[in-house]
Amino acid sequence: MAYRKPRVGIFSLSSCEGCLVQLFSIEDRIFDILGSVELAECRLLGVEDCGTLDVAIVEGAVTSKEEEERLIEIRKKSKILIAFGDCACHGGRFLVKDFDREIDANLPRVGKFKSEPLDKYVEVEYHVYGCPVSREEILELFKDLLLGRPHRPKSYNVCAECILRENDCLLNHGVACMGPITRGGCRAICPTFKRECIGCRGLSEDANIEALITIFKEKGIEIPEYLPLLKKYVGSETL
Ligand code: SF4
Ligand code: SF4
Ligand code: SF4
Hints:
binds iron/sulfur cluster; Rossmann fold; six-stranded mixed beta sheet; globular; alpha/beta; 2 domains; two-stranded antiparallel sheet
């Protein structure tokens, strides 16, 4: 039987489109990838076919009824749906979402808005974490999909990668770093450049928030307001 290239659609909901910029900035490999698939829908590139899809890559969070309905339509016509980036995976929870409270955005169109992850409305087969997503993980996912291999996100935390890079731990300098509870895969990029991890990749599988709070207290580090709030989300599919 003749090989048929998988039909791929790329979509943006509420986002800064930074994850799509990451995707298209893999200059040396993107043409290999695009050569292996049929790009059926992508507003950024002006491609619009509207047929059924093998893979839908969806960036951005759901912030309105219109986006909820659009996402459900994308899901209906796609065999595989990929949540692409922190906005899609967590609703931008670590960056724009204030957990249980609605944000008073003081916008002219809506006074308050919610920012929800895709899983809240549809089934999601794969998650690509990070704000923005990492180029290495994009390539890993595409390779796995094209070869029909299973794809699993990293189970270890950011500290595991930070220690491998022999970084001086920021906790010892009184900095509130979220590395111990955050999913790895970014090669500890922030602590490597002396900036604390803010948890953009979501919780690691073995995240122990209580233990991190204890460490912060022992080291005299001010506990960020959101950290105790995270505890109630452990084990939740929305985080
Ligand atoms: S995850 Fe970050 S980079 Fe990606 S769309 Fe959302 S805000 Fe932009
Ligand atoms: S700097 Fe942060 S990520 Fe690195 S080892 Fe310390 S706590 Fe972990
Ligand atoms: S170090 Fe933390 S905040 Fe920085 S990219 Fe990695 S997970 Fe995100």
